[in-house]
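3.2 Worked example (two chains)
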Amino acid sequence: MRLRTLVPALGSLVLVGGLMSAAPATADDFDDPHAGFASPRTVLRDAAPARVGLDPAPIAEAVERIHAHEQAPAGGHPLFAGAVGIMGHDGRIVERDASGWALRYADATTELPRDAWVPMRTDTIFDLASMSKLFTSIAVVQLVEEGRVSLESPVAAYLPEFAAGGKEAVTVRQLLTHTSGFTSWLPLWSRWPDKAARIKAVMDQPLTNAPGTTYLYSDLNLITLGVMVERLRGESLDRVVHDRITAPLRMTDTGYNPIAVERTAATEFQTAPPRGMVRGEVHDENAWSLGGVAGHAGVFSTVDDLAVLSQALLNGGTYRGHRILQRSSVEQLITNFNEAFPGDAHGLGFELDQRWYMDALSGPRTAGHTGYTGTSIVIDFDSRSFAILLTNRVHPSRDWGSVNGTRREWAHGLATAMPVRPRHGRTSWYAGGSDATTATLTTRPLAVDARGARLGFDLFVDTEETDLLHLERSTDGGATWVSLPFTLKDRGTTRTTDGTVAGSGTRRWTEARAALAAGTQLVRWRLTTDAAYLGRGVLVDGIRVTGHRGPLLDAERHPESLTADGWRPTGRDAVA
C-alpha cells in the first residue's frame, strides 16, 4: 500500500549526482553553499524537483528504496510496516510520500485481519521519540534569549535539588551537548513508584564522568532541562512547547499526548510494562511513566509540521511572520560546542555532521536528530534543504532491525539530486555513489620526455574519511601502480598530499597539480568506498597534461583519451 502526493509539474567535500536534462535550475547548486539564512519571508510551496534545478531520478530512487523495505522477504518480515517522508529544497517541497501501514499487527508476531490494516497517509501522526529533545532545546534557548538562563551557569542555579550527587558544577550547555557526565539512562518506569519519585531519582543521580570530560548521549540531560523549563515558566512542558513553538508556527498536528489517535502510527506491542499494542501514547516507557510529557520524548508530529519547523530554522527562526528564535540563537543551535570530542559534533540540542544518518547531506552546518521509533530529521543550512523520514520501525517489535541505512538512503536521494556544475565545459567525471566499490579513471599512455610534464585537473571531493581518492601512476602498462603526490589549491591556500585525499565540509572545487617524471606512463584516479556511509562522491574535471613542447593530453577536447571503470560523465549534457 502506498500513497504518494506528487508535486505539480510546473513548467566537509563531495560530489554530485545530479544529471540535469529538465528545466533550468532556479536554485543554487550543491557546490555553491549558502551563507547565513534564507529570507525570513520564505514560505513552503510544492514544486516538481526539476523546477528547482534538481534531478528527479535520485529522489525517485530513494522513494522506491523506502517502499522496498516495507516488503517482507520469503520467510521473514519487512524492515518496517510503513513510512512517510518529505524533502524540501530552497523553500519548495520537492517530495512527499506515504507508503505501507500505520497499523498492521495485533501483537509482536501476529498480523491483524487484512481489512483491519490502517494505511499510512501523508498526515499520519508519528511518535518522534528522541526527536522530542529538539523541542525542549528550543524552549531552553528561548529562556537564554530572555536572559533568564545562562548557558554557562550551573543547572543548580535554576534547580537547586540538581546539585545532589556532585552535580553542582554541571552547566546548562553541558546538558544540551551531552557532556554533563550523566549516565545514559535509568529505568525510571520500573524502579520508582510515581512521577515525583522518578524526577527526584534524576535529580539525585550522581555523575558517571566528570563534567565536560566525556561525550555520552543521555536522556537524563533532557529530562532535567524539561523540568528546568517547567520550573522557570511556571507551566507544564507541553503547554510551553505549544504556546511558544508549535502554535506560533501553526504546527497543528504537533504536541504531546495526541487526541487524534486514529491518525497515529502504531508502535510496539509491549509486555513489560503490559501495555499491549501502543498507539496514540508515547512508546518510551520512561516518558509514559511521567504522564507522556518529558524533555527527552513524548512529542508527536507529521512530516508537514516538521517541514515548517525546518524552514523556520532555515529562515533564521521565523515563519510566516512568527518568530520563535532570534537569528543568533539559531546560529548557536548549529555551532559545534563539542570540538573536544571529534565525531560527536553538537550544537544546542541538535546533532551536527552525523554521516551515519545524514549521509551526503552531512556537513558542519547540517543539523538533525533521530528517534528510537524510526524517525529522523536532517536540516542542511548550506543548501537550505531538509530530509525528514518518519517510520514505525518498532511496530510490532523493536527487535526487527535498524533503519539507519534507510535514513541514509532518504538523505542521499536529496543530496545527489542537487547538481554540482562542471568546472569546464558541460560534463565532468563522477564516482562514489555506492558503498564497497572501486572505480578507476585511467589516461592513455603518456610519453613524457626528460624535462618532465605537469598534470592539472579540478577536483571536488565529498567523502567520509575512509573513502579515499588515490592519484597513481604506472610505468609498466598498469601492472603496478605507485602513489602520485599532488598539491591542492583552495582560495589561496595550497597543501601537498601524499597522493590520497578524502573528506567533506567545503563543498567547492579545488585546483590540483602534480609533476610527472620522464618516461611512458599511465595516470589514474582510483576511488575506493568502504561498506558503509557515503558522501556525494568525487568529481574530476579539466584534466590536462602539459609537456615542454605543449599538451600531451587534453581530456576536455578528447574525452576518449580516458578509460572509465565505475566513473561516469555527469553534468549539463550527460545521460544516465
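3.2.1 Second chain
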Amino acid sequence: MAQNEESSLGFWEQFYGPNMGYIEEQYELFKQDPANVDPSMKELFDQHGAPEWIQHTGNTTQAVSKSETSIDDVKKLTSAMKLVEAIRRFGHLEADIYPVGHENRQTELVQPETYGLSVEDLRSIPASWLWEQSPDDVRDGYDVFQRLKKYYAGTITFEYDHVNHEDERQWLLERIESGEFHLKLSDKEKKQLLERMAHVEGFEGFLQKTFVGQKRFSIEGLESMVPMLDRIVKYATEEKIEHIMMGMAHRGRLSVLAHVLGKPCDKIFSEFQHSPDKELMPSEGSSGVTYGWTGDVKYHFGATKEVRDEEQANTRITLAHNPSHLEFVNPVVEGFARAAQDERSKKGYPQLDISKAVPVLIHGDAAFIGEGVVAETLNLSGLPGYKTGGTLHIIANNLLGYTTNRGDGRSTRYASDLAKGFEIPIIHVNADDPIACVSAIKIAYEYRQKFHKDFLIDLVGYRRYGHNEMDEPRATQPYLYKSIDEHPTAANVFAARLKDKGIIDDDDFQQIKEQVQSGLRDVYEGMSENTTTEPEIKSMPEALTNGLDRFETAVPLDDLKTLNEGLLKRPEGFTGLKKLEKILKRRKDVLEEGKKADWGAGEALAYASILKDGIPIRITGQDTERGTFAHRHMVLHDVNTGESYCPLHGLDEAKASFDIRNSPLSEAGVLGFEYGYSVESPNTLVIWEAQFGDFANAGQVIFDQFISASRAKWGEKSNMVMLLPHGYEGQGPEHSSARLERFLQLAAENNWMVANVTSSAQFFHLIRRQAAMRGKEEARPLILMTPKSLLRNQRVASAAKEFTDGKFTPLRQQPNLKVSKKNAKRLMIGSGKVMVDIEEAIDESEENFDWLRALRLEQIYPFPKKQLEKELKELPNLEEIVWVQEEPKNMGSWDFVDDYLRELLQEGQSLRYIGRPERSAPAVGEPNVHKAEQGQIIKEAISESKGGDSSE
C-alpha cells in the first residue's frame, strides 16, 4: 500500500459515530461540485480522498466495527435534539429583553451541560441532523446551538409553543430560523430611525422642561413604540387598507398623537393650560380635533389622520378617545374595525371584508393581565359576529403598575401570558433596540395578514419618571430607579450602536437633537396668548334640545301585511320545529280586524319595516336569536339538518342587512364592541340586549365612561339601543331590576333617552324613531326597559291601527280606565309592569274609579314636562299626585321624577309615593313575599282613601 494511502486511512480512522454521517454527507456534496463544501472540507478531501469506510464498503452501514455508532452516540444525538427544542421553547427565559432591572437572565433549560453535552459533543454532530433547514454556514451542532440562541435569546424572542395549528407554528419557525423576520435596514434607514427616536425623545423632553410638574404619561423608556406604529402605517398604506383603528391608554399617548396621528404640537401645547407664563392658543390654521362641549384632559383625546400613497389611495388612522379606565377601549376599537369591514347594503348578514381595517391595541403591562375586559375582548377575536381578521397587540411594558411591582400585580411570569390561552403568538422585544422592535412588527403584520388572527408584541422598556410625572417613584422602587437613572435613553443607546458601526459620527446625533429642540421652540414661541380672562364655556348642540316629534314612524297597513306574510315564508326543504312553527303561524292574522300583535310580532314588524326603509340593523346579546324568554325566534333551526334560517333575511322588501348574533357570555366586552360599531357606522341601528337587565351592570364602565358621556367629552355620537329586561315577577334580586335608577342618575344634557314602554306599538314606534334619527344631530342612545312576563300578555298587544297611525307617546293614557277629568281627585303616574298590573286589578274590580286619573310615563328621560302640564290643567279638582312604582323607594324612577312632579304641584295639592320601602337589594327572594308586596302596592294605588306612605 502506498504511503499516502496509509496516511489517509489512518486519518479517516479518527472519525466515528455521528461524525461519519456528517463526513459522508459532505463528501457526496464534494463529488457533485467541490464548491458545494466549505474550503476546509475541500482541502481534506483533496488531500485524503474518500473516507476509508466509503472506499472499502461504499456505505456507512458496513463501516469497520470500531466506527459503529454506539448507544452513547445515540444518547448524545437525542440530547442535542432536546437542547435544540429547548432553545425554541425556552430561549425567551434567557433573552436580552430587559433594558433595566434584570441583570442575570440565565436558565439551565438552554445550557448544553443540562443535557450532558460538551462543546466537543455538539461539534461532532452534523448540523442537518439537528436542524433540517440549517443555513450553509451552520456546520455542526455547536453552530446550531449558537445560531438558535441568537434568534431565540437576543433582544427579540418568541413564544409560540402554545399555538396548536401546525401550519401557523411551521410558518413562524421558518420566519424566525431563516432570519427573514429581521429587517435588513440600510445605513440611511438606520439613520432615519435614529432621527425618529430623537424626535420622540426631544418632544417629551421639551414638554418636561416647558410644562413643569404637569401630567403627560410620557413615552420615555418606550420610545420605539412610535417607529413600530410607523411601520404598521407603512404596511397598511402599501396594501391600500382603508382603516387603521387604534386604541391605547395614557402611556405615550401624546407622542403617538403628535408623531403618528399628526396632531399639531401647538394644539398639544395649548392643552397644557397651566403654563405659568401664558395661556396658549394654537396658531391660526392649526388643525385640531372636534371635541364635545365639556371636553376632557389632553391625554384622553383621540384623533384621526388621512394618509395617502403615491396613487392617492387613502388609509385613515383613527386613535379612539380613551377614559382613565385603561383597557375598556379595547372592545370599542374592535367594534370600530368590524363596522368598517362590514358591507351592509344587501339583505341577509353583512358581507365581511377583513382587508378594509386593521385594529391595533396598545396595552399597559399591569392592565393587560389585570383587567378582565382584556380577556373578554380576546375571546371575541374568533367569533363569527365579532372577528376582525386579527388584531395587532402591543404591551407598553414599563415594568410597573403605577407603584405596584409585578410580583404583586400578576400571577404569571409575563404580562403577556394571558394571550397564550387564546393561542396568540407572542414576541418579547427590548425597547432599546428599535431595529428589533420594527422587525417584530414585520412578522406580526405578516402573520395577521396570512392567518387573520391576533398577534402580540411585549415591548419591554421602563418608565423614566413616575406614573404621571408628578409622583416620586423612588419612594416605592428605589433600586429599580437607581438603574433607570444610570441608564442612557433609547435614542442614545441606538446612537452609540450606529457610531460603533461608523454609520454616524460624534456630531451627527447632537445636531439631530438640536434641530428637534429648535423646531419645538419655534412652534412654542410662535403661539399667541389668550387675552380673554374667562375661558369660553361651550354648550350642547341645539339639536339635542329640540323635541323628537318630527320623526314619522307610522307604516301603511298594506306594507305591514306584506312584511308579516314574508316573515312566515321558509326556504324550500326547510323543516322547522313543529311546535315553534305553530306558534309563529299565529302571527299571520295579528293585523286583521279584532286581532292584536303581541310584543314579539310588533318587534318583528319594527325590524322588517326598518329594513324595508334601507336601514341596516345589528342586534346582539347572549340569547338574542331566540330571546331569553323565547319570544323572538328570529333564527330558526332545521330539525333534520341543523341549518339555520333567519326570516328577516328572506324578506323580498329588505334593502339592507340584518345582523343578528348570539353573543358570548360577556357584558363589558360586547357592550363596548357594539358601542364602537354604532360610532363607526352611524347609519346602522345597533341594538344590544342584556340577558336580564341587571346583568348590564357588569358593563357599567362602558355606560359611565362611553355611552352616557362620550358626546359631551369627545364629540363622539352614538345612536345605539340597549334592551334591558325589567319587571317584578318574584324572580328574586338578580332577575327583577335593570337598575333603572342608575341610568336616570346619568341622564343630563339630553345625552340619551330612558324609556319603559307597555305596548308592542309603543315599542314599534320608539325603535323606528331611533332608526330615523341615525346619523342626525338629534341622534343619541336609547336605554329601554323591556318586558319579561308581559311579552305574551295581551294587555301589551296592539291592534293594527296603533302601528299604522300616530307615533311614540312619551306619556300614555292608562288603558281600560274611564276618564272623568272633572271628578278626578288623584292623578296616578307610573311606569312599566306595575301599571299593567294595576290595569288588570281595575278591570277585575267592580268599584267606580271616576275619582282616578292614571297616566303611564313611557319615556322617563327626557321627561315630558309639557305634556304632563297640559294634562294637569284639565283636572280642576285634583288633590294629589301619586307616583307608583314596583321598585324600592331608593331605586326605580322616584328620586328622578320627584323634582319634576313637585314643580307641577298647585296650591292645595300634594305629592305622594306608593311602592316598596328603601332597600339594599332590589327585590325579595321569596315569590310569596313578592306577591304580597305587589298586591299591597296595587291595593293602595287604586284605593280612594289616601292612607299612609306605603314605604313607611
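3.3 Remarks
The longest strand covers residues 880-888.
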